[in-house]
Amino acid sequence: MQAATQIKGLHAFIHASASRHAAVEIRILQAARFCKEVRGTAASPAVGMQSRSLLQQSIAAACGTFGSHVPSVFTVTRVERDLTCLVSPPVQQLARLDVLTLQAADSSEPANSVLEEVVAFINSACNCALLTDGSVSPVFAHKRRIESTFGSTPPVPPAAKAAARSLPSKCSTPQCWLEGYKNISATAARCPSVDISSMSPQTFMREVLLAHTPVKLVGGGVQHWTATEMWGPRHLKETVGKSEVHVKVAPGGVFEGSEGALAWVCPEGPCLGLNGTEGVPAHIRSKMESPHRVVSRPAVADMPVSRLLKLMAGSQAMRAAGHPPLHTPSFYVEYLSMSSSLHALWQDLRMDSGNCGSAADGVLCRLARQLHLAHANVWIGDGRTTGKAHFDAFENLLVPIAGAKEVFLWPPYNASQLYEGHMREAHWRFASPGEGEPSSDAPHDWLPVRTRQGLTEATSMVNTPVDVQSPDLDAYPFFRDAIANVHVCRADAGAGEAIFLPAFWWHEVLSEPKQQATSSDDGNLEHNLAVNFWYKPLVRRNFPCRDCSWELDLRYSKAVQAAFAEAAA
Q: What pLDDT, in 10s, does the model give residues 104-125?
């Protein structure tokens, strides 16, 4: 009866807390033990229905106690490895998991819906698969199978292996490497086009999302979006020209790349006898990946969209006049949330899960709404940018709106091949007085510079020290094994295409511009516009970590079960 006692104790704690506070925070301080017993409650015939009923009654009573009070919050902690901080000792830490906020009860909402939400939260926190009556969900069998498949890379065709072996000896330029990657991907028939125009959500879940492999999506109705038809420099100026946006500025169009730390330690010239790790304590340095390298973050400035477009035009004029790329600033809006300054553009996309639009333009929306949206981002640039190799802990739908995106991807199942780990960050700065943003609109005044002060104590956990367009295989020999596993996906706005980038896949993104005659103020401005939608991952893992296991997020239990039920029908 240990499990029943533990759950009854939870019930009493919730009930007592709810009677004292309008907003209740529930802490299960021994969650590792609690989660084990919750799983045991559902699995053990000896405990049986008595404990199942206790589980149901505990949560239901707590939810009922809240009534119409202000939102209540559940938090669950469990013991797991803390990989985010290099200062903490390398032991297991109490890591806080997700927070569940329950809105005040709605009389029109079924009473069971709150219970289902809390059970789903406990499932996610405890990595179990309970139903509201305490029994085990049928998805549990699929859960183990899905998790076991993550970590296995499909066999590489012999022709692709041969092409991969030849690259290091024949390639001395980035263009050669990129063309070689494309050849390997094509030889292995990777990143196929998938027509989703008549696909059911269940099939999309089973054959696209759970396959966890990059694909190009066609037939999603993207070509019918207002954004695809209307967005361009002139439309942006007229619609959101006065809106402030967070702009990233870097030389040569390269963003978030890795480079030697010495360039930042001694930006004015060579440093004799130094290696770039000076000042980093030995116990910190030993936990870092490539401590002699840094991730170079762009300089940042806030400005109206209209000023951004003016600076982009000036940068284009510098390139046309023959200025070298590294002496030309590149302006880029990246990772900008659509819910912030450019919310007015949201209506131009057919991705509102509450109103997916017509049968023609809402296909992608209807398939994606079974996912849990985390962020919707807009990207604005000149189409001559490179987002260097990194991974995101989200399922990603990337939709070009103007121009094209070409993505080079590597699977996440062997993290050592891309040298996953903590890397020190350095930030480009403007050379203007006080190191603030320039006041002029002359683009050459916006060229950022390296400074020793730009080195920070912060680290990135999602970037690789490997320059995939010019890899140093002596310094990073494990990348040699990753070459044959490259996937290359290309999507063009004119064709209404999108790309599915699975969570945790490494990817480097190259943008290509669209030229469009706009107002006389803009001229023939090169530009690339895109949106992407980040969803909470179906299968997740801790990071940075080269040996952590994968775990199905049980918030997706119903969708996963429905997908396999359709296949069995």
A: 444 444 445 555 666 666 666 6
Beta strands in 206-255 (DSSP E): 215-218, 244-251, 254-255
Per-residue pLDDT reduced to its tens digit, 164-208: 999 999 999 999 999 999 999 999 999 999 999 999 999 999 999
Distance of CA 371 to the CA centre of its chain: 14
**Residue 413: how many CB atoms within 10 A of its CB?**
16
Contacts of residue 141, Cβ cutoff 8 Å, sequence gap at least 6: none
Helix, coil or strand: residue 348: helix
Assess contact for 245 and 377: CB atoms under 8 A.
no
Which value, in Å, is the radius of gyration of the alpha carbons in the chain? 26
Distance in angstroms (rounded) separating the CA atoms of residues 517 and 128: 56
User: Which CATH superfamily hosts domain 161-256+298-421+461-556?
Assistant: Jelly Rolls (2.60.120.10)
Upstream peptide bond of 465 is cis (omega within 30 degrees of 0): no
**Rounded to whole angstroms, how far apart are CA atoms 428 and 426?**
7
Local structure of 375: helix, strand or coil? strand
Residue 136 binned pLDDT confidence (cut-offs 50, 70, 90): confident
E strand or H helix that includes residue 260: strand 258-260
CA 269 from chain centre, in angstroms, equals 37
For the chain, the distance separating the N- and C-terminal CA atoms, rounded to the nearest angstrom, is 40
User: What does the alpha-carbon distance between residue 294 and residue 454 come to, in Å, rounded to a whole number?
Assistant: 11
Q: Which tokens sit at 169?
A: 């000896």
Pairwise CA distance, residues 335 & 346, whole Å: 15
Write down the pTM of the prediction.
0.85
Q: What residues does each domain of the chain span? A: 2-136, 161-256+298-421+461-556
Provide the token pair at 516.
């469009």
The beta-strand segments (E) located in 52-107 are: 72-81, 92-102
Q: Which two tokens stand for residue 522?
A: 């803009």
Q: What is the DSSP letter of 548?
A: P
pLDDT for residue 220 is more than 90: yes
Question: pLDDT (tens digit, 9 = 90+) per residue, 15-63?
Answer: 443 333 333 333 433 344 445 555 554 444 333 334 444 444 444 444 4
Nearest in space to 474 (alpha carbons), one of 168, 260, 174:
168
- Between CA 378 and CA 236 the distance in angstroms is 12
In the chain, what's the furthest Cα-to-Cα distance?
A: 80
Q: Mind spelling out the 3-state secondary structure of 382-412? A: CCCCEEEEECCCCEEEEEEEECEEEEEEECC
Return the higher-pLDDT residue of 503 and 104.
Answer: 503
